[in-house]
Amino acid sequence: MTGLPTIPRILLLVDDEINIINALKRTLRRDNYTILTANSGEEGLALLASHKVGVIISEALYPMTFRIVLSGYTELESVTSAINEGAIYKFLTKPWDDDLLCDNIREAFHYYEINEENLRLTRELQTANEKLSIQNLNLEKKVVDKNREFRHSINLLDISREILEHLPLGIIGIDEQNMIVVSNRLAETLFCQAQGCLLGLMTKDVLTQPLLKLLEDAHSGQYTQLDMGCIPLDETISLQVLISKMGDNSPSKGIVMILSPLNKN
């Protein structure tokens, strides 16, 4: 019985002869079974309803147990039919051999306990599969929700990008290495990059000297935002410049330069 859980071995003896019941109890006493007795089929069924019986020794047949039929009736065709149909586990005749009877009962309990363990494992597997199915459904829902959030974020990003492109202000985002990482259409137009893109260029290759000086002061200063006033861009345009450090409301680092072009009179 190695590896199987301990299950109480409950044995039901059913016979209408009291002396047969007593003889069986004496024979089986040494194996320490919990022995229930009944003198009729009705009594046997009542005991089956209130006890988890593993093996039955009886002249009659009972469902959902390992049955050993002990009978003086040996009509071969009936016995063979009952065995072939799986109605009984063993058929023994009266009078019985004590050792053979004990061996068969022990074997019957062994198979009963294997069957009970298989049923338990089946139930556990069904429960695990049901839990896994629920977890998969929850995971699928989370994936759907995340995809919905992702699409929503992409839409917001596209909208924000479009707004940024059409602002009447030049926007330039500069990282800590002075590389331009954000720019909009007006910024590219202001710095003669209408046919190209400012992204990835270094500020020293794009900005005018006055703007580079302001940027240097911004990197070294302690302020987070500074209105730098009007800075000339060329003979016709001046720039109202606002410089703001990133990091107050996000993990971003660097500087945003906001440029408002003003025509010189």
Structural commentary:
By secondary structure, this protein is of the alpha/beta class. Helices cover 44% and strands 22% of the residues. It is built from six helices and ten strands, in the order E-H-E-H-E-E-H-E-H-E-E-H-H-E-E-E. The chain has helices at residues 18-28, 41-50, 76-84, 98-166, 185-190, 209-220; strands at residues 10-14, 34-38, 55-58, 66-71, 90-93, 170-174, 180-183, 225-232, 237-245, 255-263. Strands 2-1-3-4-5 form a five-stranded parallel beta sheet, with helices on both faces. Strand 8 (225-232) and strand 9 form a beta hairpin. It is rod-shaped, with a radius of gyration of 45 Å. The mean pLDDT is 83.
Count of beta strands = 10
- Silhouette: rod-shaped
Strand content: 15-25%
User: Helical percent range?
Assistant: 40-55%
N→C terminal distance: 104 Å
> Segments where pLDDT lies below 50 for 5+ residues?
none
Q: How many helices in DSSP terms?
A: 6
Summarize the biggest pleated sheet.
5 strands, parallel
Arithmetic mean pLDDT? 83
Strand order of the largest sheet: 2-1-3-4-5
Q: What Rg is obtained from the alpha carbons, in whole angstroms?
A: 45 Å
Instruction: Report the oligomer.
Output: single chain
Structural class: alpha/beta
Order of helices and strands: EHEHEEHEHEEHHEEE
